Amino acid sequence: MRARDDAEFTEFAATMIRPLRRTAYLMCGDWHRAEDAAQDALVKVYRRWNRIERREGVKSYAHRAVVTSVLDQSRKPWRRERPDETDEAALVVPDIGGPVDNRLLVIKALAQLAPGQRACVVLRYYNDLSVEETAEILGLSQGGVKSQTSRGLDRLRELLGHTERSAS
Amino acid sequence: MSNDIERMLAAAADDTDQPLHTDIDDILTRGRRSVRRSRIAIASTSVLTTLAIVGGLTVWQGTLQQGEAPAKTPKSETITVDPKTGRITDNETGIQATLPPPASPLSDAAVLKRCRWSDSEYVQSNKERGSNAYDQAGPINAEWRVLVKSGDQKRLEALFLAPDRSIVSLCSQKDERGEGRSGRISTSILPFPKAMEGAPERRPLVVEAGLQVPAAGVAHVLVSLAGESAPRQALVGPEGYFTLGFPEWEEMRKIDPNSKAWDNYEPTVQRIRGYDANGKRIYDWKYVKVEPPKPTPIPADVKIKTQPQIEPKVVLTKDPENGKPLAVVPFSPLSDEQVRAECKKPDDSFIDGGKGAGDERPYDAGRISPDWQVALKVGSDKRFTALLVSPGQNVLAWCYRAEQGAYDYTRSGVQTDGTFGDPAKDEFSMWAMVPEGVAQIIVDLPTGPVRAAISNGYYLWGTTGGSENFKKVRVRGFDADAKLIYDQKISVDAS
């Protein structure tokens, strides 16, 4: 890429690294992995910077890349998903109290969703993407997104209700 | 409930107490490395392109005739294989070749599993780009044949052959994380539309890429790398496919480590030889650099001819065609001195990068100095674009500074007619010269019509040349009386 492309990409990466990391964190429940996934996603974006339609297109591609990176990480044998484990770093964050507990409960609940359901819920209800956009990012039909989101939401409600009761 | 979910997700993802450890420059570095690797090592034509860039062409010395009488083979065209150790001595030089890379201990299924992801990503990338349409073999699967595999538990270098034999998929991984390269190369497509001068033989892409020796009965392959006295013995698979294992070298290397010249590169692989089971050479390829033809230089005394500035009697504030208000491209508040100081940074990199093979005037104009004229500057004090003209009035520098302090920069030498060409015919324009008789210019951007900034015979329609969302824009020029006298579509820099 030329210097100007680099400048534009730098601007984009600086803007997107945190949102991508947050999306990845909801997907994997581990800030370190989330940051790795966001980095990987941005490298992928860089590789295709000149081939992606900018504005909406590049963000969409970045989201797809970060979701793919998280799912790909989880497929690697030394990074199998462990739904019952939460981010150790997050657990030791001091002096934040209640909000941390609630946050971890949500992360734990998300971790127990099937990856596809989790991705749909995160992209739809955290990233505020449309059914069409989510379908494109995940390579699913719109009907598939709707059904996975619905099941994911139901399961999340069930888990959060259950865990909230358990915690109380 | 959905709102509650949204709130909970937002709270859970709150990262205010999570410091960011990422350095964006590291991502840039990884990205550049990745692009470089994929460009050089992966794309089916990339090897050729790279060679063309450095001005070199490979010359295949030809597959020697099969069936020649063995007795007539000179010893220098043979190798000696030690029956005990398997080590090869190159009888041309008497030097013993280095050992071949180890065969991978992984099963074919394990190799396939590791390579599947990167291969499918490559297929997807090609699909998105619409490139390599000849590749219809689909992603690798269990029906693909593993031709050769080298490495250990971590590193892996493998070649797969498609069931229809049309494509070879290359998988090269530094570790289990999959970092490395992958690519897919045609076994039959020939490079170049026709034989190029200096390239008497057109070889299939897979041969050009140095993955196969195209001679029947190849049992041993020696590869000579630049800077190494002993040839390397390759791990040879069926049909002449071979590998040296995970590459520890760059595909292109500097000829002179201290030179920054654009053509100071050569392929690291300098020679590939194939031998039959009897040790007789049956294939010999050498890299031979071919000097590109030199373009006819434009004399340094040709000067830029700009049109004199014409003051409009009435300044247009609305589009005369539809009454839409015109956006205005602001002039930068920076002083000329500040612009020169800012643009000197990328300019120094430009000069230090060394001369190209083409027009030398942009380099001969020297570094930006107080003698350079700031012909036009638009934008703000932090993000701006400026056009600077050399003291010799024959070179123009385009300088863009982003808010973060990153730059884009280029120089152009004026053509023999005193202009920089017709923007309507150019492929990319980031600026243009004001046409004759034109006092005001309207550029139709997708965001609406813009009154271009004009100064010293040049105009700009924004701080960057274009956008990824549009490639052509309509440009209208009006005389002093606001009469339309120029109406063209120009191709803007949309990269």
From TrEMBL, chain A:
Keyword set includes Cell membrane: no
Biological process per Gene Ontology, one example term: DNA-templated transcription initiation
CDD domains: Sigma70_r4 (cd06171)
One Pfam family this sequence matches: Sigma70_r2
Domain of life: Bacteria
Keywords noted in UniProt: DNA-binding, Sigma factor, Transcription, Transcription regulation
Positions of the RNA polymerase sigma factor 70 region 4 type domain: 105-156
Residue intervals of the RNA polymerase sigma-70 region domain: 18-79
GO MF term set: DNA binding; sigma factor activity
InterPro entries: RNA_pol_sigma-70-like, RNA_pol_sigma-70_dom, RNA_pol_sigma-E_actinobac, RNA_pol_sigma70_r2, RNA_pol_sigma70_r4_t2, RNA_pol_sigma_r2, RNA_pol_sigma_r3/r4-like, WH-like_DNA-bd_sf
Protein family membership: Belongs to the sigma-70 factor family. ECF subfamily.
Full protein name: SigE family RNA polymerase sigma factor
Organism for this UniProt entry: Kribbella albertanoniae
Automatic annotation (TrEMBL), chain B:
Domain of life per record: Bacteria
Residue spans crossing the bilayer: 40-60
Record keywords: Membrane, Transmembrane, Transmembrane helix
Sequence segments annotated as region (Disordered): 345-364
Protein name, UniProt field: Uncharacterized protein
